[in-house]
Amino acid sequence: MARNVNFDLSHPLMEAGLESPADEEGVHDSFQQLIAEHTDDGAESSALELQQLQSDLDEESRDNIPLCGPEHEHRRQGASDLECDGGEREMDQIQGEGWSSDTLKILSSMPSRTIGRNRGAIISQYCNKTLKLRRRRQTRPSIRDFSPSSRPTIRSYGMEGDTTDAEVNKRERLVNNLQNLPVSDRVRMLRGMPLSVAEKKEIRNLVMQKEKRILSNKKLSCYSQLKYYIIIAARKSWYSWLSFLHSLQPWQTLLKRVSGRFGTGVLSYFLFLKTLLFFNVFLFLVTGAFLVLPQAVHPPDEATETTSFSGLDLLTGAGSFSHTVMYYGYYTNYTLPRRSRGEGGGQNASALSSDSQQFSYNMPLAYFFTIGMAFFITCIILVYSMSKTFGRSFRINKSHSILTMKTFSSWDFKVIKKKSVQIMSENICTQLKELLAELTQKHTKSTFCKRFCRLMVHGVAWTICIASTTGCMAGVYHFSEFIRKDQQNHSKLEGNPLMKEARLLSLPAVVSLINLLLPALFNLVAWMEIYESPSVFAYVAIGRNLMLKTSMLGVLCFHWLGGVAPGYEKLGLTCWESFVGQELYRFLLMDFIFTLLDTLFGELLWRLFSEKVLKRKRKPVFDIARNVLDLIYGQTLAWLGVLFSPLLPAVQILKLFLVFYIKMSSVMMNCQAPRKPYRASQMTTIFITLLCIPSLLGASVCVTYTMWSITPSTSCGPFRGLSTMFKAGKHWMEILEKDNPRLSVLSKAHTYFVENPFFLFVGAGIFLIVIYFHSQVVDGQRKIISLLQDQIQNEGEDKKFLINQLQSVHKQKQEAGKRLKSQDSTC
């Protein structure tokens, strides 16, 4: 039972509902109603017509056609290719049986068989639809109001088609109705017609020619012409603006080339890097507009010692960068601008109230609320992105349907350039390989001994990974304690300041070296496990690398907030916040340097060694898990450092730009596509989830703990002289309450809602509940869709069963008739 299948899910007809089952049901109901009325009337003409049809069917049933013709065989074969995956065998069994002429008559009169075969019926059907659209608001009399003689009859039910004159008249009526429709309805109607493209073009040209004749007869006024010109110019400008916005999206051609050559797995890495770039641009714009720019326009009053610039300052972030807008210690604790330079810097919180009368820009409040709102908005964007990607990646899309859509409706015929055509063809070819690999993937059942051995290997592998991660974590902790004690001892001695700064690079170098070497051990262990699915291998590698990065960041945060912040005076520091900002800058820079070393030695030199020495054409495969976790690790450092270094997102933006072009060049020259292609349908969702839950959540917890519990430095920064950074908002509320007692409500609201941690946990809980409910809704939609698919498949099986029963009943009648004839002949 072949049907015209439309593979375009975004087709306007699917939204407009012109071909909905409800319309078809209405047509069938009206037809049944008409037959019932004819039956109730008891008209002799109708009874004679039905008897004539039955006699025609009986005469044709005596032909005893064993098999269907080639046209029907071809049609059934085309239908079997478009059905669900479980119906091929049953369809083959039905095709193997000989269908009688009665069965073929019923099958050929079905709506799914008549549409597409009779062009006149199609034109008549859509002529009625266009007329219905024109008269949608008009009321029509019921069919019962007509007399039986004026009603349609079923006398021509057995006719195969319309005559040529009738088809021409219907075409003219269709053209007239389309010409009176709006442009949008006309386009939707033409697209929905099951005709060839040439016939649709012919009808459209007839409609346009008729419109031109009508417009030529009518003379438009100058006002109407001007209005049409303005509308056309505005539409062209809007389309040009949309095209310009699309062209502003970076790296479109490069991403298509990567997707065509290496598949969706490698593409997901570069798309994730692009997402991180947008997050850092947002952070840079917020901190630059509300913190850096006001402080740069109104520099602090304190006289600072200027140091000469050296090349080591770019690596350490100290030296000449220490007393700049890049770090926390440069920002003032008073309201900008100050009128008098003799008031000093305001060494305590009383400076907040001394300048309350000239309220123009309160830097402590701006610093506090800018960091808080930046994290809050970033969290909202991440939660929204995560819920959106959940809906995209976990929806039900069987590989058969996706393969069909990719095969028949994935080509963009607007692409005409040779290079673009080549990129698109490679992209579609790679996607088809991934889908076919997913279809042909076989899950073999292993014995108990094999499963037990596999579990033992997995257990040993995870034990090695956890033990190595724990050992590295303990080593980094002891090394950081050694560095802190060494710095405490050398702070009392005078020495070369450059050597002191160079000594600070040891901890970032050790941590970056561990992050480079330990994932290689994880890959070696995974090679011993022998995973059948490449996607499972990628997910396991992501989990192990996430365990390593999270443990390293936890040790570092404990080192900074638990070791450096409480005893910063013993270390010879005047501003521990600026020191932590410099540390985070050094970690970011060292991570970028080791990324370059990995690209050079791990990909370029390995390719040269394999080609020149080993004489093999094999190239290394791009390690998606390790590279993605490196991006998440660097982004977590950037989020941690926003409080201590407002310009750290600018450093992260520059790093991401360089990493993109370096990795893109290395992938194109030094890497090869995976041996087993796989479709990374949920990679982006997993990356966004890891960026939200461990990364942003961990950074938010550390920043919140710093603002809420740790005492700021007493000689630098916007929160100097306060017990905690959080007290800045409370002092501001007290000042407002003193100046205007009517604003005491705001002070109470700040006390109950902002200072109370209960509401912070409530907000976090609401976000988690939203994520949970959205995931449950998506899961429910998946179950409903799967049930509907099973229902459709079962209905197809029911139809096949009824056809087989009809065939068996027909055979029994034929055999009974033959027996009666044989008995009559013997008698």
Distance between the termini: 45 Å
Q: Which sequence of strands runs across the widest sheet?
A: 1-2
Helical segment count: 30
The 3D shape can be described as globular
Count the strands? 2
User: Mean pLDDT across all residues, rounded?
Assistant: 75
Structural class: mainly alpha
Describe this structure in words.
The structure is a single chain. By secondary structure, this protein is mostly helical. 71% of the residues lie in helices and 0% in strands. The protein has a two-stranded antiparallel sheet. It is globular, with a radius of gyration of 38 Å. Mean pLDDT is 75; it is low at 1-97, 137-162 and 339-359.
Question: Secondary-structure map with pairings?
Answer:
Blueprint: H1 12-16, H2 21-41, H3 44-61, H4 70-82, H5 88-96, H6 101-108, H7 111-114, H8 119-134, H9 164-179, H10 183-192, H11 197-217, H12 222-248, H13 252-262, H14 264-297, H15 312-316, E1 335-336, H16 350-354, E2 361-362, H17 363-393, H18 399-409, H19 418-439, H20 448-490, H21 497-503, H22 506-529, H23 534-564, H24 576-612, H25 624-641, H26 648-670, H27 683-709, H28 727-739, H29 744-754, H30 757-826
Antiparallel strand pairs: 1-2
